[in-house]
TrEMBL record:
Xref: Pfam families: GAF (PF01590)
Protein name: GAF domain-containing protein
Source taxonomy: Bacteria, Bacillati, Bacillota, Bacilli, Lactobacillales
Cross-referenced SUPFAM superfamilies: GAF domain-like
Protein family (similarity comment): Belongs to the free Met sulfoxide reductase family.
Regions annotated as coiled coil: none
Amino acid sequence: MVTRQVASVLIYRSDFFVGKRKYMETKQTRYSLLNDQAQSLLDGEHDLIANMSNLVSLIFNSDQNINGTTYYRLKNGELILGPFQGKPACVHIPLGRGVCGTAAALKKTVIVSNVHKFEGHIACDKDSNSEIVVPIFSKNEFWGVLDLDSTKFNYFDKNDQEYLEKIGNYIFGI
């Protein structure tokens, strides 16, 4: 059982602090801490908007190389902007267009090492160089996507995919 104390650990973009000690981390360590924090913060909360808002903030603030974290939900056959952190984001994304629309159409995670080479990429932030988009399911039905952008090329990998596919669905309850 994760306690509420875990949520009080502050994570700062790229490294984190416990008490007065600074610990450098690996991606796996960061995701493990992020998982514990998300579970603690969202445990017992059933408001979808509150959960999405807190989760995108946790993810965005956990890594200085992430310049955008966004939920998009499926509505009337297109993706519609939900809670996000970062620069202003696209409001409407057609299925099959851009990285988000492609992941939504396929209903599977899409990792792009260089967004500038992705045909049909929708550039909401010119500083983004790589992207991962994870499908979100509610009761086994496709609901939308969680989109992360990075300023670094080749930033996202299978480790990100594994954790984000798990953590991203916490919005529906722990």
